[in-house]
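dumping this here before i forget
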Amino acid sequence: METPTLETVATDVDFLPLNGTDHLEFYVGNAKQSAYYYQTAWGYKLVAYAGPETGVRDRASYVLQQDKIRLVLTTSMDPNSEVTKHQSQHGDGVKFLSLWVDDATASFNETVKRGARPYMEPTTMEDEFGTVVVSGIYTYGETVHKFVERKNYKGAFLPGYKAVPNAMDVTPVGLKYVDHCVGNVELGKMDEWVEFYENVMGFKLLLTFDDKDISTEYSALMSKVVSNGNGYVKFPINEPADGKKKSQIEEYLDFYRGPGVQHIAVETDDILETVADLRRRGVEFLYVPETYYDDVLDRVGHVEEDLEALKKMNILIDRDDSGYLLQIFTKPVEDRPTLFYEIIQRKGAKSFGKGNFKALFESIEREQASRGNL
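structure:
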């Protein structure tokens, strides 16, 4: 079967123009310590903070940035707050997939009139650096899309946050921007959420992977990829498929206690150097057996990188009609087997590594077995 590819989709009228991912906000148990992890292990720089010291009494939030990737880590001071309840239910995880827009009011109105459930009415925030308008709608589970309009703002992040100097020397690992974010939903719900993105947000279906594409002897999943009109924002949506044993999606749903963001794919221009740096800092990656590399070039053809170097770093390779890609996946970065990261370098390829699905799935199954969850 020919590897499906991602093509930039042109819509006749894009009622929800998106400039890209504005930020990803996590609700976590200890934001100060989580921020330390992302600075030391991942090379993010602390750029802004909100908390008691800035007049915010009920929470503390740390804003971390590396190139165009912005993470916000938030912890509540109130045991009865939405933040605390979310973290207690789901563990540390992504609450907001926030999208950068030119008009947060129009984005809210257009999606709500098409059926979106409102999370936050358009709200204007202001400080000495200007104004920001933020609105929001719910998507799968308790995950929220915020629309952030910041064209009239020059501050470090948002009003209410203060720019802060890094307390440590931080060296970036070469991460550039968010390539895509993957959501896990319950059995039978994938098509429902694909239709949500199509009908409510004007996205287009790009790719479909069934249980023949993503399966092993023991388990399987199904996935569909949706993208906005300019291709800047891509959301694969996964659901479990029938198998002899529990799939990775079922394990996620069990431990996250519902649908949510499974993994975040971040782009680099030099995956060998990025992964080597991350490994030196203690980030753990899934293991793929060395036999994977015995015939990989027969499948994907010539690549510019040295195969032995890719093998040493355990980096996977795949090709489509537009070029090839290099990718690797971390182990879960929380104690619960939920959220993980993908590091990806695109050398022309627009697809998602279909040729690596079986090897990847088997790697995840080995980890599941070690946890007693397969």
